Amino acid sequence: MPALVDKSDVTKICVDDFAFRKRYSYGTVMVDLESHRIIDLLDSRETGKVEEWLKSYPNIQVISRDGAQTYASAAANSHPGALQISDRFHLLKNLSGAVEEYMYRLFPSRLAVPAVSQNPEMQALYDTRNRTERILFARKKRSEGYTVNDIALLLHSSVTTINRYLSMPEDKIPEKKENARERQHQEQILKKQAKIDEVRRLHSEGHSIDEISRITGHAKRTVKTYLKEDCPLINGHYDRRRPGKLAPYEKEIIELRSKGLTYARIHEHIAQKGYTGTIASLRVFMQKERTHQKNISPNETVPVEYIPRKTMCQLIYHELESVKGITAEQYEAAIQKYPVLGQLYTLLKEFYRIVFSRKSEELDSWMETAAELKIDELDRYINGLQNDLTAVKNAIIYPYNNGLAEGSVNKIKLTKRIMYGRNSFALLKAKLLINEYFHQIN
Length: 442
What we know:
- By secondary structure, this protein is of the alpha/beta class.
- Helices cover about 55% and strands about 10% of the residues.
- The strands form two sheets. The protein has a five-stranded mixed β-sheet, with helices on both faces. Strands 6-7 form a two-stranded antiparallel ribbon.
- β1 (about 10-20) and β2 form a beta hairpin.
- The model is unreliable at about 120-130 and about 295-300 (pLDDT under 50).
C-alpha cells in the first residue's frame, strides 16, 4: 500500500478497539480528530504494540480514548507531554451501569411502596390471579399505546403470554371468576350460611338447643353461636398462618425485604439469630404475604403497591415523564421509602451536569459525596476515576471525545460483513484506508 497519511501532520487523534472475533481477538483503530479520517489500523490492542504504533506519529498533542489502561499506558509512554482525554460517553455509561448493577443486586424484582393510587384494575391484579382480568387488562393497556414488553412487565408475565392474550378472539375469552382458593372460600361461606339458616329455622319452630343439636349434629356451643345475631360467616382462623420456624422472624423478614435485601442475605441474617429453615421458606412466606396483604385489616398493615425494578432502572437513563408504568406519586413514594434511590438519581444528574459544565474542580466533591454511600459498585467506579483523574478532568474541560472512533468501529463492522469474513487483516486495512483516501479527494 502507498503511504496515504503524512504522519508528521497528525496532532490530534482518538483511538479505540474493535473486534476481529468478539471476546477473543481485537485490533485498534486510529482516527484523526481534525480531518475525521481513519488514518491507520493495528491488528492488536496490546500495550507494547500500541505504544510502538503511537511513537511513529511524532507530533501528537491530543489523545482521546476510553478508560482502558492499555491505551492510557501506551499514550503515557509514547507521548508523555500529550493531553490525554477520557471519553465522556464511557464515563456516563459506566456510571449508569454501576448504579443499575447495584439496583439489580440489592433490590427485589418488585419494589413495594405505600399505595398512592386507587386503580381498581391493578388492585384486582394484585389480589387475585384471575386470568380473565389479566386478559382484559392487557388489551386495555395495548389500546392505550403500551408495548407488549411494557404490558408483560406490568403483569409479570412473559411476552409470549401477552401476545397470546392480545391475539385471543373475543368469544374465546373465559368468563370472569374467582381463583381456586377464593372460590373455595366463597363456597365455605355459603355452606356455613346454610347451616346457620337451618339452625335458626329449627329454633323459630320451637325446638330446643338440645333437639337442634341432635337433629343437625352440631355441638350445643355451635348451635348457640349460630343463633347469635353477630355470628361471623368467616372463620377467625382464615388467613392466619400456622406457627413454625419462621414465626419469630416474620416482622423482621418483611422489614428487611421492604428495604430491598435479597432472600439469601435475609436468610443469613436470621440464621445468626437461630433460624434453621430454608431460603425457599422465605420465598413462600413472602409470596403469601404479597397475595393476601390487600385483604388484611388496615389496622394491622399499610396497603402497598408494587413498582417493577426494571421500571426504576429505566429512570437511570430517562426522565420520569418518558417512563411508562410509574406515576410521579409512585416515584415520590418509592424515593421516600428507599432514600438511597433518590440519592443515586441525584448523583447521576449531578455528574451529568458536571461533565458538560466545563468545571472540573467540582468532580472532587462529587466523588466524596458518592463515596459516602458506601456502595461497592460506586466505589469501584470512583477508584477508576481516581486512577485516571487527569484524563477525566480533561474530558470535562476540553471539547474532544471518542465519537469519531466509535463511528469508525461501526464502519469497520460493515466492511467486515460485506467481505463475509474471507479477508485477511491486510486486505481489511487496505480497503478501509483506500476508501478514506478516495473520500478525501472527492
